[in-house]
Amino acid sequence: MAEKDLKKLIEKALDMRNSSYAPYSHYKVGAALEASDGQIFSGCNIENSSYGAANCAERTAFFKAVSEGVHDFKRIVITGGPDDGELQYATPCGICRQVMREFCDPESFEIILAKSTGDYKIFTLAQLLPESFGPENLL
Ligand code: THU
After folding, report:
1. DSSP state, 105?
2. Mean pLDDT of residues grouped by 10 in the chain (139 residues)?
3. Which helix H or strand E contains 62, and what residues bound it?
4. Which of 7, 58, 100, 104 is the most exposed, fewest CB within 10 Å of its CB?
């Protein structure tokens, strides 16, 4: 069951990669974010002719979810690679890791880097963002 659900989440991320707008880097990323209540929010990277205005796939997914009032998350699948090449284990950038840190428990939130439904690596947020700064630091 869990395996089947993960396969579906990976398929969603792969599908979302088709919506990627990456005319400058030609590096396409798709993400599928699963909320604790089971809802799925997908996202792609969206580039801009003013390069700094680009948004990563992961943040697109998070911002879609948070803007819909969802703040609790279980895991995210990321699929990325050059548009004319093979998929890579595309790790989230530093800014995206920090955005995840705002809403997710570092020890339990899973970041799944997938090349296909049968080829993926799973990390916790704590593994990818150790000794992190988060909301509780400001309480
Ligand atoms: N990108 C993502 O969407 N997620 C990441 O975590 C890494 C980078 C995008 C941003 C840009 O559109 C392209 O990949 C190349 O950096």
Report:
1. -
2. 88 98 98 98 98 98 98 98 97 98 98 98 98 97
3. helix 57-67
4. 7
